[in-house]
Amino acid sequence: MNETELKKFKNLLEYFVSHLDYIENKDVNAPGYDEYIKSYVESQMFKMTGQGYDGAAIQNQIKEWDTYESGQICINVQGNYGTYKSTKCYLNWIHTGINIIAKWKDTKIVALYQDEFNYWEKPPRRVNTGKEYSLSDLGLFSSASATAFLRTFAESYVERHENLKKAEKIKSQMKNIYKATDLLLYKKQIILQGPPGTGKTRLAKEIAENIIVKKGINDINIKKWIIVGSIIQSAKGTAQYKVKDISDRKVILERGNETLGETSFDKIIECFNEEGWKNEIKDNDRRRTAAIAKFIHDKNDVTNNDQIKLLQFHPSYTYEDFVRGIVAKSNGKEIEYKNVNKTLGLFAKDALANFNASTSASPEAMAEAWVDEKFELFKKDIEAKLPEEELVLSGDITIFQVSDSHFKYAEKWKTPGYLNYEEFKKLVKAILNGELDLANKQVDKEKFIHAHYRYTYYNALLKLFFDEYSFEKETPKLDAKNYVLVIDEINRANLSSVLGELIYALEYRGEEVESMYEVDGSQKLILPPNLYIIGTMNTADRSVGHIDYAIKRRFAFVDVLPKVLENSDEMIFNKELFEKVSRLFITNLEEYKANPSEKLKRAKTLSPEFRPEDIWLGHSYFIQKKENNENGNEILVPQNFSMRLEYEIKPILQEYVKDGVLIGSVTITEGGQESEIPVDQYIHSL
């Protein structure tokens, strides 16, 4: 709050205290009576009770002080069994549960505190925010300027409201994500289609994250990602913390040699669900909470989550690249050619293992899923401690790097060694099945060729793994997981050729289909019910028409169209330029802004052969993102928007002109006179 608003806020608090004091005690000598209450009482205009947010006349008594840059504050007073010493008497930001309540001692108000009443929950829940100050701390009924406590109280109250507004905005933005998620859960595979620049890939990632993380995080998620030794950057990237301890549902961080305050799991979960790291934070405790929440969020990003895979199709993509194919492998002496699962084959295998382990009590399924789950935790634990703490395998031989497919060890060797993840998991499964002893000896060359020649290091790693994790045959079923494959530019490949027999499996989940390649002694392939596919498709691409009807029937198509954005803490939107470009495609932008379901009306410059829904240039081309550089200073990306205009926006529009998508002339008005200019000149003038 600025100084003017802070003065109003002080008056508002004084009125609130005076009002409650008078109606409870009828004491005309109480502080504030003469200044705030007397005139209303004497004119018989005083309203004791009412709900200001509902338009009651009581609100008129604070109208001088109820409006702020952040919004309107209402006074709400109800009697509670003959007394006004209750939470039914409060100030609050209109239409929220963010309140200021009086704290009474006997017949006097001694302090004010803030709480949040989550009235929409069942049952409703009230949370004390911990912001409480005495009337003297707040400097009420004093002629002195605003106290530090009053400033803190006011800033906290505004901050909670701003955070709520941002959360509500996020919820509004999430509606499309929730709708698409429901469709994906029903259909199993969808394609997000729309013109260039509408954020299809970003939306696909958000849907994938939503279907994976679902309702947010819990204690298990926190313990999975936050481990002792984890290095955590502050939300703004200006500070670095290290996890010192995790116990009793609390995380303790340290910075340098200083141990910092503890952060409860509840605060982390709340901050995660509200994306609190996106807000301006002044309190050190909340900064640490935001850093932890953002760390978990980033770990759940599609690039870090083993339940989500992202790839891009291209015209030369084949079945052998996507499902199963032949690869050349060296056994140390000669080259062997093997049939192996590729991206979808491997992903479907992981998803099926979890599906079986979470829906049946089969010991084999349980063991396989247990190994996959515990190995991911084991790998992340090793990775979190690097580079400060390298895992010792033997003497001075340590693991110094964790890659996508293997651990690298012996950095000082001329050629460092590596331990393959899949080979390691095969060894773990063999031990669980009683086929192999956990001992420091060579393993069967025929079964484990890679480990045979590196048995010392594989065995050391196996011992460390089983020291950490113990498999019980009576372990309960594992939690069911969803797996999401995001295929960017899905229409650029020949889908009928790439998918092959899986066109059938897309519709009949859980049923076996015969692959042309035999892997691990079987030609069977299954797409389990917990595997979902999201494709993105640029409708301006000439290859759109190549998708045949058999595939179209198996996918649900979701339109993702351009939209007008507002400036935010994260980006600046060039609305003026967006509107100038949009008039090349549609004539009813204002109506569309008010109602996105409004049918688009074609501009005269758009060829009748094309629909604006397929061609209209999307909003992402008109965004400058706000980011922090290496020094923690905010910068815009791109810094010079003219670069994007000259090298991204104009070239696409000029290509449209060459291809006959944009035709004719544009009507412009200057000095009250209308004139026509060719569409290519209009583009040049942007």
Architecture blueprint of SSEs:
Layout: H1 3-25, H2 33-42, E1 50-51, E2 67-68, E3 71-77, E4 90-93, E5 98-105, E6 108-118, E7 125-134, H3 135-138, H4 148-187, E8 189-194, H5 200-213, H6 219-225, E9 231-233, E10 240-247, E11 250-255, E12 258-264, H7 265-274, H8 284-299, E13 308-312, H9 319-322, E14 324-330, E15 335-341, H10 343-359, H11 363-385, E16 391-394, E17 397-402, E18 406-409, E19 417-420, H12 421-432, H13 449-452, H14 455-468, E20 483-488, H15 495-499, H16 502-507, E21 512-519, E22 522-526, E23 531-538, H17 549-554, E24 556-559, E25 571-573, H18 575-582, H19 589-594, H20 612-615, E26 623-628, E27 634-637, H21 641-658, E28 665-670, E29 673-678, H22 679-685
Parallel strand pairs: 8-23, 8-24, 13-20, 20-23
Antiparallel strand pairs: 1-3, 2-3, 3-4, 4-5, 5-6, 6-7, 9-10, 10-11, 11-12, 14-15, 16-17, 17-18, 18-19, 21-22, 25-26, 26-27, 28-29
Helix pairs in contact: 4-5, 7-8, 10-11, 11-12, 21-22
What Rg, in angstroms, do the CA atoms define? 32 Å
Shape: globular
Termini separation: 40 Å
Q: Strand share of the residues?
A: 15-25%
The computed structural class is alpha+beta
Low-confidence stretches: none
Which descriptors apply to this entry?
seven-stranded antiparallel beta sheet; five-stranded parallel beta sheet; 686 residues; alpha+beta; single chain; 22 helices
Kindly describe this structure.
This protein is an alpha+beta fold. Among the domains are: 3-163, no CATH class; 571-685, no CATH class. It is built from 22 helices and 29 strands. 30% of the residues are buried.
